[in-house]
Amino acid sequence: MFHSPDEKPNCNSPIERNEPFQAAFTSQQDFIKDVSHELRTPITIIQGHLELLGDDPQERAETIALVRDELKRMNRFVTDLLLLMRAERPNFLRLSAVDLEMLTQELFAKATGLATRNWQLEAIAAGEMVCDRQRITQVVMNLAQNATQYTREGDTIAIGSALTNDTIRIWVRDSGEGITAEDQEYIFDRFARGRTSERRSEGAGLGLSIVQALVRAHDGHVELFSRLGQGSTFAIVLPKRALHQHQELPRSERLALSSLQESQP
Ligand SMILES: Nc1ncnc2c1ncn2[C@@H]1O[C@H](COP(=O)(O)OP(=O)(O)O)[C@@H](O)[C@H]1O
Ligand SMILES: [Mg+2]
Fold first, then answer.
1. Residues 145-188: pLDDT tens digits?
2. What is the pTM of this model?
3. Facing residues of 237 across strands?
4. Domains detected in the chain
5. What residue owns the CA closest to ligand 1's atom 1?
6. How far is Cα 160 from Cα 119, in angstroms, rounded to an integer?
7. Atom of ligand 1 nearest to the CA of 202
8. 130 lines ligand 1 (CB under 6 A)
9. Does the beta carbon of 160 lie inside 6 Å of ligand 1?
10. Rg over CA atoms, the chain
């Protein structure tokens, strides 16, 4: 039961007024509303097609293909939701020492398979970092996939990595349509899709929130530089070593890492 401030005139602190609780409740309600909406769309599509289904074999085949597609999309959606939830748990990452040069080359090779574009490998950091290789790959593939959706065949998509003293930066730059300042404000939110751009993805607007959650799990952050008509650069910035998470590493790698640190000035 929630009380409005009117009912409790003497409560002045936000906690006394139940504000954090109220805010959490409201955001949970919004979340459930968004999830329901996203699931209802494919359900309605499937239902509509099944109700109209006749005996024509050609038509039946088309409906089955469509239903499969919609179910696949729902499945992807649920997988994404679960990942978002899991990414906030401690011990989510599987950390290991990763060679940056190899990682960058591998990310680039994988991304070029997504679509025909003018792909460029524009910088390669040399060195090592501690990260969850699979999750970082997922992040960069997500960004690269988005980049293919907002560019055309002749456009450039560049991937690069750079190492400074204590941070590693990996970026995906595209010469596509860019993002308005207004859209930049909220596209990282769950279920947010650009309002001003034409919709190019079949996703539920969870891609960038997953990117952000995975990067935050690494104690990093995401930077976005974009100008309408000129393209976008999404950069993930990660601490070189997530030291406090070493306990998750297998013992052999923990030992290798601590000797690596001891040898540093
Ligand atoms: N490289 C990009 N260029 C232009 N707009 C982009 C780019 N990447 C993302 N966006 C915008 O951000 C929105 C959210 O992206 P995302 O979270 O991946 O969701 P989805 O791909 O499901 O739409 C997109 O709908 C689009 O408007
Ligand atoms: Mg996307």
1. 999 999 999 999 999 999 988 899 999 999 999 999 999 999 99
2. 0.82
3. 169, 221
4. 19-86 (1.10.287.130), 96-247 (3.30.565.10)
5. 147
6. 11
7. 22
8. no
9. no
10. 23
Q: Is 98 helix (H, G, I), strand (E, B) or coil?
A: strand
Task: Give me the count of residues in the chain.
Answer: 265
Distance of CA 222 to the CA centre of its chain: 10
Q: Is the CB of 175 under 6 A from ligand 1?
A: no
Q: Which helix (H) or strand (E) element contains residue 133?
A: helix 133-149
Q: Please provide residue 128's backbone torsions phi and psi, each rounded to the nearest 5 degrees.
A: -130, 150
Instruction: Give the integer Cα–Cα distance in Å for 52 and 71.
Output: 18
Q: Please report which helix (H) or strand (E) contains residue 227, including its range.
A: strand 221-227
- In 3-state terms, the chain is what percent helix, strand and coil (to 5)? 50, 15, 35
223, 238 Cβ separation under 8 angstroms: no
Neighbour-count burial of 187, counting CB atoms closer than 10 A to its CB (0-12 exposed, 13-18 middle, 19+ buried): buried
The residue ranking higher by pLDDT, 245 or 105, is 105
**Paired tokens of 248:** 């998750």
**Closest ligand to the CA of 212:** 1
| Residue 97, SS3 per DSSP | strand
Q: Which residues contact 41 (CB under 8 A, 6 or more apart)?
A: none
The percentage of residues in the chain with a pLDDT greater than 90, rounded to a whole number, is: 68
- What token pair was written down for 20? 């954090």
**139-151 per-position pLDDT tens digit:** 999 999 999 999 9
User: 210: CA distance to ligand 2 center in Å?
Assistant: 10
Angle at 143 between CA 142 and CA 144, to 5 degrees: 90
